Amino acid sequence: MKKLRKFLLYFLVFCIISVLIFSLSGCYSIQSIDDLAYVVALGIDLEQDNNLELTVQLTFPNSSDSTSTSGEAAPTIINSVECSSINSGINLLNSYISKEINLSHCKVIIFSEAIANKGIGLEIYTLSNQVEIRPDCNIIISKSSAKEYITNSKPELENLVAKYYELTPYSNEYTGHIVNATISSFFNSLSSNYSDPVAILGNGNKLNFTSSDESIDPEEEFNIVAGQNPLISYERKSENLGVAVFKQDKLVGELTALESLLHLILTNQFESSIISIDNPYKENSSIDIALYYHKDTKIDAQLVNGAPYVKSKIFLNARILSVDKSSESLTPERIDELENLINSYLENAILNYQYKTAKVFEADIDEIGKYLIKHFKNDIEWSNYNWSANYKNTFFDTTVSTNIKSSFLLSS
Predict the structure, then answer these.
(1) Residues of the chain under the 50 pLDDT cut
(2) In terms of residue numbers, what domain contains 291?
(3) How many CA atoms lie within 13 A of 207 on its CB side?
(4) Is 247 inside any structural domain?
(5) Does the residue 3 lie in any domain?
(6) Residue 23: how many other CB atoms lie within 10 Å
């Protein structure tokens, strides 16, 4: 009996020691956040001999604590290296800084227009294969160099530059002038056989414009892109406005702020925005209209005599913002007239936009192909049809139904 008790005691001591040894042995492989250099923005430029210039903007892990009560922006560090690939560039940077680079907090990846024109397929696949890169990381195409975009991105209402990069794309929810283009959506469109990718259009070099004495045409006010906006004055030099259009992995064109809004409507990403149209009841004046999501756009695609034929039905709510004394005359009949005017304006704008994507860009960024693919028996038949080459032959028909909420109007 004593031997059994002694054996059990030794066995218990052995088990305790074993547990302690195995529980403590893993501590040596755990990396503290203080040992990592967190990238919040990654810039990729094209250099001579097809080399890359990789730019990283680093932030401190405890910067949020140090600036929580201060009005000053948290400090960041910007480093660049010329390299042959993204992975080799990160490896080189790891050799020169005191901490290991970590991409798990990267909010935006900026490509220069030069490398986007050449094609960014290899870089997108490389980044998508990085387990640290989050799928909601946004893609920006800068008309200036990516390094210049990062250097000139100065948060005005945020202390943390990471928060600034994170919130900026969501302005599409109330302006409609950019898209929330993530690396996951870009990768999915790039690897599919029925659509083409888009990205946010940016610019990192504020241009100097001379003021004009000419009156602003309300219907042309939003036909602008990043780097071409003479109407706004701001301190920081970087901006995001419009959409970069890709055919497969190559940049082929740009969408203006207004066309970005139309793209969101057709792809059911639209929430709200404001447009201006000529006032038919008062000369040299305009009417501001707030547009709101009502229900999803319905798209039907068929083959008619071998050519794609696409019908789109769009449903929107609207609110008249230009309310003044003359609004007293907005009778139900006048409201019907305004609804028809808005419908006609949007129908023309959308048709022009759709034919621009088909005839000029030849890029199906509105995913029309997924509505047409159901008419093919299998994927082989669809691949043989070669949608990428046939999208330019598409004919479009669009109807818009707008419902003005007259309850928002002032009444005497």
Answers:
(1) 26-29, 64-70, 209-210, 410-412
(2) 271-412
(3) 14
(4) yes
(5) no
(6) 9
